[in-house]
Amino acid sequence: MKGLEEAQFDGKALAQLMRSRRTVHSYRKAEPDRSLIERALELALWSPNHRSTAPWRFVWVGSQTREKLAHLAVELKEKEGNLSEAKKKAVYQKILEPAALVVLGCLRDPDPLVERENYASVACGVQNASLYLWSQGLGTKWGTGALTRHPQVYKWMNLDPQKVEMVGFFWIGPFDSSPKPPPRPPLSQLLSEV
Fold first, then answer.
1. For the chain, is the Cβ count within 10 Å smaller at the N or the C terminus?
2. Within the chain, how many helices (H) and strands (E) appear?
3. Tens digit of pLDDT for each residue in 149-187?
4. 34-44 helix and 112-135 helix, angle to the nearest 10 degrees
5. What is the model's pLDDT at position 16?
6. Which stretches does DSSP call E strand in 24-99?
7. Residues 56-115: pLDDT tens digits?
């Protein structure tokens, strides 16, 4: 294939990278190089993008905004019911613990089909970025929830909810141990032929 000759492409290494990558839930306090994360986000832009809509939107969340997010996350959980002090601390730390937090945004479109294609492109982009970061020793997690739909968070992120949908938080950071792989069904259970 044209272009692959120069890249010294190693399909086996790529397959191993895909099989080894995990969602990380617990991070170390060490700060990764921001340029490494920006490189990963740039690689997200190379994901499939039907109609060339460039739907990806990223917002780097600084420490002061993360504090506000953490307080709001606790407040939202408290509204769900009785919340112990330990659970409050866990919710708070979930926002503050990873070294980096990036909001994932997806460009809205009046056509539901285009909007669905845009979301698929963002999802592919997250996989690109996650694989690259994993290859560099950094873990990631794509998380969603009430916080990503809260009107105040849209204001803090400087996003117009009519133009961009927040589709999650992207936690990034160094970690100590990789979670065990979840079982996957064999391809034979999922592949059919007509």
1. C
2. 8, 4
3. 999 999 999 999 999 999 999 999 999 988 888 899 999
4. 140
5. 92
6. 56-60
7. 999 999 999 999 999 999 999 998 888 899 999 999 998 998 899 999 999 999 999 999
What are residue 86's phi and psi, to 5 degrees?
A: -65, -40
pTM value is 0.91
State the pLDDT confidence band at 6, using cuts at 50, 70 and 90. low
How would residue 3 be classed by pLDDT, with cut points 50, 70 and 90?
Answer: low
Q: Which residue is it, tokens 């730390």?
A: 93
Strand ordering across the sheet containing 100-107? 56-60, 100-107, 164-173, 139-143
Q: Of 99, 96, 124, which Cα lies nearest the Cα of 33?
A: 99
Token pair 């990380």: residue: 24
Helix 63-80 vs helix 85-96: crossing angle, to nearest 10: 150
Give the CA distances from residue 55 to residues 115, 118, 133, 164, in Å, rounded to whole numbers and listed in that order: 9, 6, 21, 9
Decide: residue 164, CB within 10 A, 0-12 exposed, 13-18 middle, 19+ buried.
Answer: buried
Instruction: State the SS3 of 117-135.
Output: HHHHHHHHHHHHHHHHHHH
Query: Which residues have a Cβ under 8 Å from the Cβ of 186 and sit 6 or more positions away?
Result: none
